[in-house]
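Could you join me in thinking about how sequence relates to backbone shape in a protein? Label the sequence line and the structure token line clearly, so we can match residues to local backbone shapes. Once you have written the record down, we can walk along the chain together.
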Amino acid sequence: MFRFAAKMLDHRGAAEDVVQEVFVGPWRKLAQLNDATLVGWLYRGTADRCVNVIRAPQADVDLDLPRSPRTDAQPEHAALISGRLAVLTEALRQLTSQQRACWLLHEVHGRSYEEIAEVVGAHPVAFRGRIARARVQPAEVMKPWR
């Protein structure tokens, strides 16, 4: 959940706060939740809280998350990976919060269309349109890196 929130917000501190808030909810309702619904509930709560943080007038996102590749990587390879991550991060910043959530949940977290549709509160058919639109910007920006 932290990785998802950190990518949504691009701010480590805000992501930590969001995840902490989200995990307090299930703790209080532990008896009402089952294993099948818990993961979806956590993603939905994280996505909703991230959107609220992004929309908040005082939201000042710090886009300086550490983006260093593995420390055992060759310097040239590390520079290449860092450059690609910077370009991708900028492309993701330009998506709406809903599109960013869809893209991250599908491409990074490997969630199914049905799970993501539930998280973002959309019908699976409508979600397919959102994910298609969300893929356009990052794909265009990343073309030179292919």
User: Anything to note?
Assistant: The CA atoms of residues 4 and 45 lie 11 Å apart. The chain has a mean pLDDT of 78.
